[in-house]
Design goal:
Blueprint: H1 5-23, H2 30-40, H3 42-56, H4 58-62, E1 68-74, E2 93-102, H5 107-173, H6 179-213, H7 237-247, H8 249-270, E3 276-285, E4 288-298, H9 304-373, H10 379-414
Antiparallel strand pairs: 1-2, 2-3, 3-4
């Protein structure tokens, strides 16, 4: 069946769009960075492989040990009637033994439970690695956005100063201003160009650091970052602390560590009891099975000093794991409180700047510009008004970026995006 022309065009357009999307470098949004890092970051890949290895250790931990097989050739000279031989049919008798060791009941279950707890600890360590990586990517994205916006602000101020420079020249030509005004305007623009050079160098540094996290060459291209996204609702400490207790991967890893140590302690106490073995031995004479032996073997746990030391070690490991979990909890709660306070402070500063300082600075600059054109204020006052506007805009940007970075830290602590 033939495909209509319009359908072919639609398929071609779709393919081109998909190819363009695939060729688009990461960096425009945090999601693009996170998606790329999941596939490329070697440290995260390492932790995933270690988690897979830990999961693969669960089944063997609870299995029986391999059985053993032995063969015993008896009377290889047949009472010195023949030359020594290793042929089972020619010796006096041949004993074949199949032997299987059996741990004391419960030991296998405890070993499997300890392995499962260790695997969970590895899984949570991989989550912790990813959360740390995600926070670093989010912070780098916020810094890239800040530098891009600062360059844009400086560019706009440079355009404003170009207009002011034109005004000063006109006024100087008319005898209404001194030549120093034009020189100061030019000097101010030169300083802005120097600031642009510094911002460009900082941007290259951040791009190189971000590319390193993505396992890309330092000079690999990145898309321009778009506007930052902040949750609209206010954040409260109590709900966030509860989510931290439930979902923080470091705490989850510590809980798994405690569980593993607890199972290992039970296993250490269970080692007071013996293991045993069963064996079956058919005995061959000439070319026939003449007899059967059955053997039961049991270990004798005489080395009580060794076992007491192992039990003390296991108890200490449980206590250490519990203390570590408590220390992680206290540290994480403290970091959450600090980050939340800094976030709220940054958001309040952003609201104040956007609602009050920035409008006032714009009005002040407009009034100063109008007054300068009529000769009511001198040029330094006009430059001061321009600097106030620039500082207000940069303060708003810094507050927004600070809030974004503190949000990234909070998301790392609670173990999920907010």
């Amino acid at each position: 069946m033939s495909v209509p022309n319009h359908a072919r065009c639609t398929l071609l357009a779709t393919s081109l769009l998909c190819a363009a999307a695939a060729a688009q470098p990461p960096g425009a949004t945090v999601d693009s960075l996170l998606s790329y890092a999941r596939q490329s970051n070697p440290e995260f890949a390492l932790m995933l492989r270690e988690a897979d290895a830990a999961a693969a250790r669960i089944a063997p931990a609870g299995n029986l040990p391999d059985p053993s097989f032995s063969i015993e050739l008896r009377d290889i000279t047949r009472d010195r009637t023949i030359s020594p031989t290793l042929n089972p049919s020619n010796v006096g008798s041949t004993k074949y033994t199949v032997r299987q060791m059996f741990p004391w009941p419960g030991k296998r279950d405890l070993a499997r439970a300890a392995a499962e707890a260790s695997a969970e600890q590895s899984n949570q360590a991989a989550r912790s690695t990813w959360n740390e990586l995600a926070m670093r990517l989010k912070v780098a994205h916020a810094r890239r956005y800040e530098l891009a916006q600062r360059r844009a602000i400086v560019g706009e101020i440079d355009a404003l100063l170009a207009n002011l420079e034109s005004v000063t020249r006109t006024r100087y030509a008319g005898g209404l201003a001194s030549q120093a005004d034009a020189v100061r305007a030019l000097s101010e623009r030169t300083m802005l160009r120097g600031e642009l050079i510094s911002l460009a160098a900082q941007a290259r540094t951040i791009d190189a650091q971000l590319n390193a996290l993505l396992a890309r060459p330092p000079d690999a291209p990145l898309a321009e970052p778009v506007r930052l996204q902040m949750p609209a609702e206010e954040m409260r400490f109590a709900p966030l602390a509860e989510r931290l207790r439930d979902r923080n991967p470091d705490l989850a890893a510590d809980r798994a560590r405690v569980d593993s140590a607890d199972r290992s302690r039970e296993l250490a106490y269970r080692n007071r009891y013996p293991d045993f073995a069963l064996a079956v031995s058919p005995i061959q004479r000439d070319n026939r099975l003449a007899d059967w032996d059955v053997m039961f073997e049991i270990t004798i746990p005489l080395q009580q000093g060794t076992r007491r030391a192992q039990e003390q070690e296991a108890e200490a490991m449980v206590a250490a794991a519990s203390a570590r979990r408590e220390a992680t909890m206290q540290r994480s709660i403290g970091e959450l409180g600090t980050a939340l306070a800094q976030l709220e402070g940054a958001r309040e500063m952003a609201r104040l700047t956007e609602a009050s300082l920035l409008p006032q600075a714009r009005v002040n600059l407009e009034a100063a510009l109008a007054a300068y054109e009529t000769g009511k204020v001198d040029f330094p006052a006009l430059l001061d008004a321009e600097r106030q506007l620039r500082q207000a805009r940069l303060s708003l940007l810094a507050a927004e970026v600070e809030a974004q970075m503190r949000l990234a830290e909070i998301e790392r602590l609670v173990g999920e995006d907010l």
